[in-house]
Amino acid sequence: MKIKATLESEKRFWNNEVSLNAESELKKPHRTSWEYQYWQVIFESLKMNYDFNEKNIFVGGCGTGIFEEWILKNYSPKSISSVDLSEEMIKLAKIRLKNNPKVKFYICNLEHLPFNKEEFNVAVIIDALHHVPNEILVINEAFF
Question: Of 45, 55, 63, 129, which has the fewest CB atoms closer than 10 Å, so is most exposed?
Answer without folding.
Answer: 45
